[in-house]
Amino acid sequence: MEIDEAVIRVDNHAEIDEVEPIEISDDEARRVRLYENFYQVNAIDPALYAQHDVKRGLRNADGTGVLAGMTNISNVHGYVMSDGEKMPAEGSLRLRGYDLYDLLGDLDPTRRFAFEEVAYLLLMGELPTQERLNRFVEVIDSQRELPDGFTASTLMVDTSPDLMNMMARSILRLYAADESAEDRSPEHEIHTALSLISRLPRIMVLAYYAKQAAFNHESMIMHRFVPGQSTAETILSMLRPDRSFTAEEARMLDIMLCLHAEHGGGNNSSFTTHVLSSADTDPYSTYAAAFGSLKGHRHGGANHQVRAMQAEIKENVKNWEDDDEVASYLAKIVNKQAYDGTGLVYGMGHAVYTLSDPRAVIGKRFAEQLAAGTEYEAELNLLKSIERLTPEVFAREKGSTKELCANVDMYSGFIYSMMGIPEDLFTPLFACARMAGWAAHRFEEIAAGKRIIRPAYKNTIRGTKPYIPIERR
Length: 473
Fold this sequence. Notes:
mainly alpha, two-stranded antiparallel ribbon, 3-stranded antiparallel sheet, single chain, 5 strands, Citrate Synthase, domain 1, globular, CATH 1.10.230.10
């Protein structure tokens, strides 16, 4: 056992010193000027991409993805191609051939949890029988223990202000505790994946409280996990100081884990998983790299931008039920006069989905049930207004005819906030769920890829420059 006590609280109000700012000497400042031309040195004329038909971001000119592989894991569908034109379509997400709406859309209230079943489907390729699901849940439940001293040596020493960084570092630390870390056999690959699916939620909560203690001078709370609880229950039980949560909250979190579990091989973090797996590196290095990708503001980290923008709208729109007032502020955002000046309405639009994102549709449906009759109902209605009005605002202000739909981030942060889950955990929760999808993609790359991923880059410098000795430069 790593920790015997049920709850450990460490008050750090007196023990932690204020962080001293790093002073930069005049000599260091002089040397830093070497980087003043960073962007000029690394710039490439955008016209060259079109001239050489380079697929920037592995995207075609119409925004569709470059076909780079085959997969049996999932299908993300958001448009159809007709006579070479991209035509909008209702979004669908199929996991191993099963439509997300069938898996989650009308979830039987008597079946409280689905994440473990979705994880089984992704890893094993088929829906489980009740007996197989029970065994699968037992295996996940049995893996939650961490190596002796792990929390103290990994999470409470050199604590990072970013939880995604701490979780990625924890995965690499677990490599050191695995005597068979370099084993590439199916048995070890599956064992490693299941152990991380089991342990990452616990690591996430412990990392959160380590950060709270180190940087916010709050108590370090370390609850023991409760054997037999689902992944969603384990997270809420460990996170809440009093360990209490409602069945509705656990079911809502379970749905969110399912929505984030998998989204195709082309998304950045899953493609990262394919790239590292194709190089025949170990699973721990692969999954740590996927964490680094998901952390990015253009990927999983986008949910922070969504909530910050929504907070600004809530503060500046006096009457949330007035469409004209909401649309007026959205117009300011679109015209780069409000929020971050990018002209983007975060939470709207997707690289694949055009008319709808099924994850947002399902998330909103369950959010309506949880918010009904509560103080959150008005905010949910505001978000629905943003979703409805944004395409109209873009059409009016920019003359844009592009189809825009709400993506999963429009409602995910709001749902977590309803449950009192701190924003620090939004992206880590995403990662805990996506671990199942990453593992499925790694398995597929090992079994079917058989070739290191190495796309080509066009060099912009023609010919060879004559070398000039240093004394003559």
